[in-house]
Design a protein that fits this description.
The protein is 11% helix and 38% strand. It has 489 residues and is mainly β. The protein has three domains: 3-23 and 172-324, Immunoglobulin-like; 31-169, Immunoglobulin-like, CATH 2.60.40.420; 346-488, Immunoglobulin-like, CATH 2.60.40. It binds copper (II) ion.
Length: 489
């Protein structure tokens, strides 16, 4: 991060936080368990998802205006099985056009839900979504070009858990809401009246929108959950618009078993893990060893330096407190082997493509923030390879079945890069090897100084009518034009 941007972001977060006050945490609330739609036993009917305007209390006693999918805030956790086809009916009632993108699914472009698959207010989009991939934690969110940041922030996001025969039979906790929990982590800002707030400015476009308050499943952290003695599984999504989160446990290392696209070879123990917006990790917590433990989150995941330390910004907050009870749950041991992952072989690639993420294309971001409703989706303020996103321009053409190396660099700041329609393996991240917890199947890679390189194969078709996207997952950067389109044929 350059000095100018750093000082801006430090200033912005101080203003929002009103000094240290917003970091202070109150007594824990119960962990909200997001309602589960479990379809692993079979699908009888079409799956209805309704995007609705709603209101929601995040736990501060104030009702905020939100968007929800079948619920007042966020959507359901949908659990499905490899081999199924999901007959979705996505109804849009939010008063403006939206889309729903299935982030992480290996599916063709015509059901991907990207910015070309607009669902106008009052209409229904009915894609049949085939699930061909292995067990993995995926999610769905608005991808309405120019409005992705606002609509996702307001609540248009949900979780899609894919299981397969192996994952259902695996010796792992899998009783939802008992020993297996889905956690959606987000940062929010609440205004003086306590309502959820979102406002654009030049600084927000620079850094993305960063709130000062952590929420878990729509409740202000910390939240608490009684759990059985034994292993507890946490399936974690960073659904922040822009914040990198550094996760650790209060006691002991954090034990990672899966990344975006599925299980790791074996559990990886780390002091902490760095999660960008859009990333998913599954972790196991051993509640036989301790009566209590807690998931801690450092909101300055992408660093902050001395200024942030000085003002207390570099402290970890408690996301989720776990307390052991004598209720029955998973009683197996920590597995030693999870999946049979072969190391990626860059010699498989026949094509190499280079992408530079461009912050600095000379746009007046302050003016853009004021005029956003009019320029929305055609901002042209950020770019990839010098080209701001254009809905009618295809940037790359990939041959179906080819293995490629995509090399990504940046001109400023740290960015999380996402590719639609695939999982990939990280060959290098910021010029070095990826951390071992990020060495499995991924669809997000961090890009800072130095090249990040991924090895990727595209097996499904995306035509120029419904191309795939690649983009920065800082949603304000994406909305500003840090996105490109590609076909697979
Ligand atoms: Cu970015």
């Amino acid at each position: 991060m350059d000095r100018r941007v750093f000082l801006q972001s430090a200033g912005a977060s101080l203003l929002l936080a009103g000094g240290n006050l917003a970091w202070a945490q109150s007594a824990p609330r119960p962990l909200p368990i997001i309602p589960l739609t479990d379809l692993t036993g079979g699908i009888e009917d079409r799956i209805s998802l309704a995007l609705n305007p709603a209101t929601h209390d995040f736990g501060n006693g104030v009702v905020s205006e939100t968007l929800g999918i079948n619920h007042n805030y966020l959507g359901p956790v949908i659990r499905v099985k490899q081999g199924q086809t999901l007959p979705f009916d996505v109804a849009n009632n939010i008063g403006e056009t939206s889309t729903i993108h299935w982030h992480g699914l290996h599916i063709p472009g015509d059901v991907d839900g990207g910015p070309h698959q607009e669902i106008e207010h009052g209409s229904v989009w009915s894609p049949d979504v085939p699930i061909v991939q292995h067990a993995s934690m995926n999610w769905f969110h608005s991808h309405m070009h120019g409005k992705t940041a606002q609509q996702t922030y307001k609540g248009l996001a949900g979780v899609l858990l894919v299981e397969d025969d192996a994952s259902l039979a695996a010796d792992l906790p899998n009783t939802y809401g008992v020993d297996d929990f889905t956690l959606v982590l987000q940062d929010k800002t609440f205004d003086d009246s306590g309502k959820m707030a979102y406002e654009l400015s030049a600084a927000v476009f620079e850094d993305g929108f960063e709130g000062d308050t952590l929420t878990v499943n729509g409740a202000i952290a910390p939240v608490a959950q009684p759990v059985p003695t034994g292993l507890v599984r946490l399936r974690i999504l960073n659904a922040c618009n822009a914040r990198f989160l550094r996760l650790s446990m209060e006691t002991g290392p954090i034990t990672v078993i899966a990344s975006d696209g599925g299980f790791l070879s074996s559990p990886v123990e780390a002091n902490n893990i760095l999660m960008s917006p859009g990333e998913r990790y599954e972790v196991l917590v051993d509640m036989t060893a301790f009566e209590t433990n807690a998931l801690k989150v450092n909101l300055n995941g992408n660093g902050g330096g001395f200024l942030s330390d000085l003002f207390g910004g570099n402290r970890s907050v408690t996301a989720l407190s776990l307390a052991r009870t004598d209720m029955r749950g998973f009683d197996g041991a920590l597995p030693t082997q999870l999946a049979n992952l072969v190391p990626p072989n860059s010699a498989d690639a026949t094509v190499t493509r280079d992408f530079q993420l461009n912050m600095n294309v000379g746009a007046d971001l302050a003016a853009l923030a004021l005029a956003w409703e009019n320029v929305c989706g055609d901002a042209g303020a950020m770019a990839i390879n010098g080209q701001p996103m254009k809905m009618d321009r295809i940037d790359e053409k990939v041959r179906k079945g080819d293995t490629e190396i995509w090399r990504i660099s940046v001109d400023d700041q740290l960015h999380p890069f996402h590719i639609h329609g695939c999982s990939f393996r990280i060959l290098s991240q910021n010029g070095g090897p990826p951390p071992s917890y990020a060495a499995g199947w991924k669809d997000m890679v961090h890009v800072d100084d130095g090249w990040s390189e991924v090895l990727v194969r595209f097996d499904y078709e995306a035509t120029d009518h419904t191309p795939y996207m690649y983009h920065c997952h800082i949603l304000e950067h994406e909305d500003c034009g840090m996105m490109g389109q590609f076909t697979v044929t």
